[in-house]
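In the present case, backbone shapes were mapped to integers, as reproduced here:
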Amino acid sequence: MNLKPGSNAHQKWGDLLTAVFTLCALDSKLESRTVDRLISESRVRAARRVAALKPSRRRTVDLDALGHVIYHWQRSTRYLDGEGQPLHIAPRGRAPSIEALFREIGRSDYFEAGLIHLKQVRRIKRARNGRYFPVGEVNIVPSLTPEIAELVAQTVNRLLATVVHNTSLKNRHAVRLIERNTAVPDLPVRQVNAFKLFAREQGAVLIDTLNDWLESRRGTTARRRKNIAGHVTAGLHVFAFVERNKRDR
């Protein structure tokens, strides 16, 4: 089973379907005809959901580029004040500016749309003087958009790849990728908002620490381009979940 992303533009969806059907195949009680019925019903429900979306919720946002803009804003000395806090900067013009940040990460072509998207996903706020400052480093996109669909596909594929990797290692002393979760079945509803805030705070600290570690160990742009085979994509995906319990029948 090949879990690596392909060069085909639609390969990510093929990978996602492969992951789903792999999980179905592992369920010995799931018959083929039942899978066919579920596929048919799911396609109908998916079509209804997409049809219900507003056009404004289908804009493509480059979360990777936005994340790098915020990262450099909060790490580069030219964008920090004497106390190490991010400067309030103008949207356009010479550095320090948001336009310059996009230029420095090699995405000048995305600046105009990216400035709008930074506001939409609430990564920046406008000060009274018309300048902007960054808000946090964790992407929380408030609407269902194409990039979120791709992120979900990547998440499912990467989770399955992690499980396959860990269960395929023969040496019990080999280093395995972390794959953990924590959950309780009876959290009072009144605690949900507190849980959301606590999870966001703790997740942000973890992502911030991992991001610093990863960024400090990246190869130079030139080396990455010349030696693609010598590099891999590595990261950590953190998400919280709340499920409504089904009533016992």
Remarks:
- The two ends are 39 Å apart (CA to CA).
